[in-house]
Amino acid sequence: MSWKDRLPAVRGKLLRDEPLAPYTWFRVGGPADALFLPEDEDDLAQFLADLDPAVPVTPLGVGSNTLVRDGGVDGVVIRLAGRAFGKVEPRGESTIYAGAAALDAMVAREAGKAGIAGLEFYRGVPGSIGGAVMMNAGCYGSETKDVLVEAYAVARAGERATFSNAQMGFSYRKSAKAAEGGLIFTGALYRGTPDDPAAVEARMAEITARREQTQPIREKTGGSTFKNPEGHSSWKLVDAAGWRGKPYGGAMFSPLHANFLINTGEATAADLEGLGEAVRADVLAMTGIQLEWEIKRIGRPG
Questions:
Q1: Helix, coil or strand: residue 262
Q2: For the whole model, what pTM was predicted?
Q3: How many angstroms separate the Cα of 100 from the Cα of each of 62, 154, 226, 252?
Q4: 102 closest CA partner among 127, 136, 139, 128
Q5: Cα–Cα distance, 170 to 218 (Å, whole number)
Q6: Which end of the chain has less Cβ packing within 10 Å, N or C?
């Protein structure tokens, strides 16, 4: 009997051999051996506690910064969604709670309505809070570490945990705590500063306008592909290597922003990852700089 036939009972949805392409912004990738969409945090914790410890577990947010390979993903993929994980709630004293499934942009808007400044940058970050916490997401000079008070998670064995900002071990596009693995982040508490809601909204409008002018936000993309090496801009390196707008199968680096990898229509995950690796090789040969992926790549090659 396969482990898929011995999965714990759940109140949410548990799907076998579920295609993951529809759950990602790139719209590519093979199936999950099993996909679990928990009803709430209790459902998640109980499932993890009852799941065979040998079965791999992979968290997946809204798939804005994730490339699922064509062969699919081993074990159980867990996707937090719905009302239980999408709650955004001001808590007073310029603090606001956000569930892991809440979109970053929505959290920025709700903070603004509550007169909380400091989270405006989230208006320009694609994805959801779970991913933002895991990778210290940021843009335009601000990062998650600047406003996070604490993050909440469920560990692989089902225990709940709370981590302070310091315990998260944030650095550029990284969290040391998240990198340890074995955690499903379920929410976060933020603290900003008091400000006039209209002023906050005006700053968010500027960010929105800037994004629309400089990023291919309506394409099938994963956002920034490579981290910026110290002292350099990844988009300039990709551009200098001659890859802006150059097709590679069904993949391309956007003519609008050379650090945005896009699916031009019928790309496979192999096209997208292959293009990224080709660019990395060319940039390394040209400059000696090793570009580091910012997009998370998961699963088996096709």
A1: strand
A2: 0.94
A3: 10, 12, 24, 30
A4: 128
A5: 30
A6: N
> Which three-class secondary structure state does DSSP give residue 112?
helix
Instruction: Look at residues 37, 38, 33, 71 and name the one whose alpha carbon lies nearest to residue 55.
Output: 33
Angle between helices 104-113 and 197-214 (to 10 degrees): 150
Tell me how far apart the 2 most distant CA atoms of the chain are, in Å. Answer: 61
**What are 248's two structure tokens?**
């590679």
Residues of the chain with CATH 3.30.465.10: 88-212
pLDDT band at 302 (very low <50, low <70, confident <90, very high): confident
Tokens of residue 262, six digits: 């896009």
Answer yes or no: are the C-beta atoms of 240 and 232 closer than 8 Å. no
- Statement: 216-298 belongs to CATH 2.40.50.100: no
248-279 pLDDT per residue, tens? 999 999 999 999 999 999 999 999 999 999 99
The Cα–Cα gap between 251 and 133 comes to 28
- What number of residues does the chain have? 302
CA distance 95 to 89: 9
3-state helix, strand, coil in the chain (%, to 5): 30, 30, 40
CATH class in words for 3-79 = alpha beta
Parts of the chain belonging to CATH 3.30.43.10:
3-79
Reply yes or no on domain 88-212 having CATH 3.30.465.10.
yes
